[in-house]
């Protein structure tokens, strides 16, 4: 049984351990393992154990003094051109480091939030600067609780893979948010999370889909009474709609994530959707194909829209399809969601006599059929 070392016991030999793990995953040792003749001779070459080693190292070092050093060797590789195989291995290395940091007893939440905030902002700044030719590099970075990150930047400058650092930091942040209790009354916690609202909103501008994983971190934060949220909510809404309507995104997981986050925004903040925005939203395939391919995500969003009493002409037609789905769907959760939407709609929306009669006839027809 492998015993996890006490915190700090590996600090003095961190560089040596990282070198060994790096060489096993990315260096000469890794290349030798890929040679069939060598790989077939020894069972040790058939599986790379160094990923788990990185996780153990990460949960054993002193976080405050050695967390940034964990990334030093990886950042050297990020600055170089990467083959698809090496990129996958780097991502796996970063993922195991993130897992280890979450298990590190010395990684207090306030320090970890500062660490993640600095890395994300550095990476987003690099991406933004690369897209603005001729702009001067901004060296001033925001910090949490007036703590400066100057001199601690580990983000490779000018590398097309520098976004991997942001993906790593977002993973670190998400792991902590997932495993901690988010108390709405904890003022210290709220003050530490508030600076992330704007930062994660900036992540939605990224051209890298992996960086858009900031969705996962924003969702739990939106449910908290964070001061910056009301000011940033409308910006986040617009960015979500922009992502969702991009060509090629129609039925992707990315759009599903956008719609989920938009649902949380509508439920938890005071934002609303304009007529044009709602009109555009209803044209998405998840709404058009509601009867043939019912989407729980689309229904949840529609429930939030109806709950906010947002009116466009198309909403009346969509609700008719929801009524049909309530009767025809074989899924009980879908039927229940549809009935909730329909009830809310009938209670809150103005209906002409003709439309009201249409709904009454629909109910009576299906009640008669159900009695046979």
Automatic annotation (TrEMBL):
Organism placement in taxonomy: Eukaryota, Viridiplantae, Streptophyta, Embryophyta, Tracheophyta
UniProt xrefs under PANTHER family: SMALL SUBUNIT PROCESSOME COMPONENT 20 HOMOLOG
Protein name, UniProt field: Small subunit processome component 20-like protein isoform X1
Pfam families: UTP20 (PF20416)
Record domain U3 small nucleolar RNA-associated protein: where: 6-120
GO cellular component, one term: 90S preribosome
């Amino acid at each position: 049984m492998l015993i996890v070392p006490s915190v700090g016991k590996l600090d003095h030999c961190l560089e040596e351990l990282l070198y060994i793990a790096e060489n096993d995953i990315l260096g000469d040792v890794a290349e030798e393992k890929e040679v069939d003749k060598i790989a077939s001779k020894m069972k040790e070459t058939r599986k790379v154990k160094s990923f788990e080693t990185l996780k153990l190292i990460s949960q054993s070092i002193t976080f405050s003094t050695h967390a940034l050093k964990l990334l030093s060797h990886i950042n050297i590789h990020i600055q170089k051109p990467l083959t698809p195989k090496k990129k996958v291995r780097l991502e796996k290395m970063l993922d195991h480091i993130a897992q280890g940091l979450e298990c590190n007893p010395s990684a207090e939440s306030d320090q970890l939030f500062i660490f993640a905030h600095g890395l994300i902002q550095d990476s987003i700044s690099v991406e933004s600067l690369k897209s603005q030719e001729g702009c001067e590099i901004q060296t001033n970075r925001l910090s949490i609780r007036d703590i400066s990150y100057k001199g601690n930047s580990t983000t490779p400058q000018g590398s097309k893979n520098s976004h991997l650092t942001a993906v790593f930091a977002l993973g670190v942040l998400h792991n902590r948010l997932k495993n901690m209790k988010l108390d709405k009354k904890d003022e210290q916690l709220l003050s530490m999370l508030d600076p992330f609202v704007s930062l994660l909103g900036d992540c939605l501008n990224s051209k890298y889909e992996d960086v858009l994983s900031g969705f996962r971190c924003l969702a739990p934060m939106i449910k908290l009474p964070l001061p910056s949220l009301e000011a940033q909510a409308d910006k986040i809404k617009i960015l979500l709609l922009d992502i969702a309507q991009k060509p090629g995104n129609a039925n992707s997981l990315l759009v599903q994530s956008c719609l989920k986050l938009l649902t949380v925004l509508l439920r938890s903040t005071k934002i609303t959707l304009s007529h044009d925005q709602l009109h555009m939203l209803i044209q998405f395939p998840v709404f058009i194909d509601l009867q043939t391919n019912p989407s729980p995500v689309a229904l949840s969003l529609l429930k939030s829209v109806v709950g906010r009493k947002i009116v466009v002409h198309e909403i009346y037609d969509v609700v008719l399809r929801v009524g049909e789905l309530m009767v025809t769907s074989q899924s009980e959760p879908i039927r229940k969601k549809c009935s909730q939407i329909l009830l809310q709609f009938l209670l809150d929306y103005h209906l002409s006599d003709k439309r009201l009669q249409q709904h009454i006839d629909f109910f009576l027809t299906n009640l008669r059929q159900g009695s046979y």
